[in-house]
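Hey team,

Sharing the Glycerophosphodiester phosphodiesterase family protein run so nobody has to redo it. Sequence (276 residues) first:
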Amino acid sequence: MNHIDKGAAIREVRWQAHQNSNSEAPENTMTSIQYAWDLGGIPEIDIRQTADGIIVGFHDATPKRTTTAPEAYQDTDISELTYAQLHQWDAGVKFGQRFQGEKVPALEQVLVLLANHPEREVYLDYKQVDLTKLAELLHRYKVEEQIIFAHNDHENCKTIKRLVPEIRTMLWIPGRVPETTVQKVASVRETGFDSLDIIQLHLVDAEEKGTWRYRLERSFVQETYQQLKDAGLELEVLPYGFDRDDLFDLLHMGIRRYAIDEPKVFTNTLQLYANS
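Structure output:
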């Protein structure tokens, strides 16, 4: 194996704080966003639009799981609620008592911070918004180059790229059925990776763990990484589980972009890699 400058490798790593399964802060809140920035990562915000047209950070279609919405509203679609209604409910206390008082943020709150900190970035994971309205908002705050737009529909990535040429786009591809993942990557490659900057592969644990932990074959991940690199794109991986050796293996492969559910565990393991 060629010598690897581990310090340089760590400095090259970029990581996304994956929101809806983040185990260290309440998802899609200003606290979780700042937490990721403070650790040196890039927060992800799931974006939906309220009945009165406000784009908010929210993963689920309804407020039931993550907020203190009254029973009468728990199964109401976010698109049928006004921002004022959504904002009155607590979005942190279900995660932990010390987060009581957290509110569902409007995307504009985050963009104001981005505009004042050009070194920061944010992933926007598309759930349900008007892309034209989103584009107008990004242009208004002049943060286009600080945004990574993420979705699993290639057409939406193409659309936002036309509306906001400066934006980076990431197509995420599930990994539970390897054959489907392989076909999806091949299909996107046939387009010349049209309008894409990053492809994210989900690394789901294999039913039987061997020297390689995941369902997607190691050779496929390595080949995809090289194809994207040759095309001037990046590979991002979302390992749903990892230990020290798994992460070291991915880093040795050259992968420098990750999506992570446990940011502190990840950054601690990166430090182990640097010191090993």
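The CA atoms of residues 51 and 80 lie 5 Å apart.

Ping me if you want the raw files.
A.
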